[in-house]
Amino acid sequence: MGSFIIQRFNFSSNLIVLFLLISQSFVIQTISHENNNPTAYELLKDFDFPIGLLPKGVIGYDFDPSSGKFSASFNGGCSFSLEGSYRLKYKNIIKGYLSKGKISSLEGVSVKLWFMWVNIVEVSRRGNDLEFSVGIAAAGFPVDNFEECPQCGCGVNCNGVINLQEQVRKFEEIPLVSSF
């Protein structure tokens, strides 16, 4: 009878070990699957768009490959100037449908034209140009202008603009000197 209990214990412990191994394998596969997801910027490149269509700071995105439905979220809204004359504004969540060379039904991105804000509803790639449509009108820009992600507040050319994090870092680097 003693050997039956030992065999039963071994069977139970083997079952627990097998369960733990399977669970651990599942967790590792899930983590590695999540790590294989491209970033929102890499996803744009997969659809023949430059990464600079999205400003720095995307904190998450959703993409449905069957429909092309895409959304990206930021930690708050974002605005910056493009080529010194156009002012762009991104809401904290932007949405649209992504296909090869085209973003349609775009929501959450607007451009300031003269004195009013107008929604950009579509972005199309036409060779080496990107065409931004506001519905009744469109404007084209070279793709090269979007090779770099703009930064909220100052855009792509942020020379001379120091953001708050850089100011804090520089302040922390100043050694404390006492006059005593």
UniProtKB/TrEMBL annotation:
Signal sequence annotation? 1-32
Source domain of life is Eukaryota
Instruction: Supply the Pfam families for this chain.
Output: DUF538 (PF04398)
The keyword Signal is annotated on this UniProt entry? yes
The record's annotation in InterPro entries points to: At5g01610-like (IPR036758), DUF538 (IPR007493)
Q: Which SUPFAM superfamilies match?
A: At5g01610-like (SSF141562)
Q: Which UniProt keywords apply?
A: Signal
Record-given protein name: DUF538 domain-containing protein
Its lineage opens with: Eukaryota, Viridiplantae, Streptophyta, Embryophyta, Tracheophyta
